[in-house]
């Protein structure tokens, strides 16, 4: 009986609710009452969805963060490589420009090693006997002389830098031609001039170039810049210090200079022979062409037409 009563009541309520608006205020009030029940029923589902989304979002953010870090490292590596390539390009351009100013034959080479002994200034380059390198061959970078080859191997060579304590090079002041000897001090940033008279005309800022004395280094290459001149009235010689123009600690690409090994007499003799051969060729070209045997000789004054 109760089931029947409630079933009829439910059907009546549905008909009234579908056809009339009398129950809408009651529906609104009941909705406010049962809202906490709905919220409590959806709570476990919302918590699960929120936790799942949070975990997935955190994982995605972590993966994205790792990916961005990897891409950042890659871009930083590329940027460093680009900076290195830019500097390398600048150095090579400077080297090529310096090679264009060199009259002698040159060969580009690259630094591949440095002597670990702190008391010697030697480097290893990637050119050797197979490339025509010889003992005593001058080495320079884009800014000046660096040293000379002291050991030649089949594919590599060892270079003694001008700042080594055992190295000396004859130089002259570019301003007035004053000659001196520049000696290494063991400091890659300093050279000293030996036996310079206290009254010598030398001052700070003077450019020192190779003088060509000794037939080892060709003349005219920059060697150092004078930075300090100390005069002592009680000493016969002045103390002169200079800074090498070459970047001994930073240059990676260098030039091997193949100087003309002929003596002055040999060059003069070969020049005279070449000039004599040229004069002989000019005289031969100036001689008239002789007619072939049996061919009538052309008249010097041909008769005029009509005679």
Task: Describe this entry's structure for a reader.
The chain is α+β, with helices and mostly antiparallel strands and 307 residues long. It has helices spanning 2-19, 24-101, 264-286, and strands spanning 105-114, 122-125, 138-140, 145-152, 157-161, 168-173, 179-184, 191-197, 207-210, 222-230, 237-244, 253-258. A hairpin with a 4-residue loop joins β4 and β5 (157-161). Mean pLDDT is 79; it is low at 300-307. The chain is elongated. Helix content is 39%, strand content 25%.
Helix content: 25-40%
Question: Helix count?
Answer: 3
Task: Please provide the ordered H/E string of secondary-structure elements.
Answer: HHEEEEEEEEEEEEH
Strand content: 15-25%
* Poorly predicted segments: 300-307
For the largest beta sheet, what order do the strands appear in spatially? 1-2-5-4-3-12
Class by helix and strand content?
Answer: alpha+beta
Number of strands: 12
Indicate the topology.
Layout: H1 2-19, H2 24-101, E1 105-114, E2 122-125, E3 138-140, E4 145-152, E5 157-161, E6 168-173, E7 179-184, E8 191-197, E9 207-210, E10 222-230, E11 237-244, E12 253-258, H3 264-286
Antiparallel strand pairs: 1-2, 1-12, 2-5, 3-4, 3-12, 4-5, 6-7, 6-9, 7-8, 8-11, 9-10, 10-11
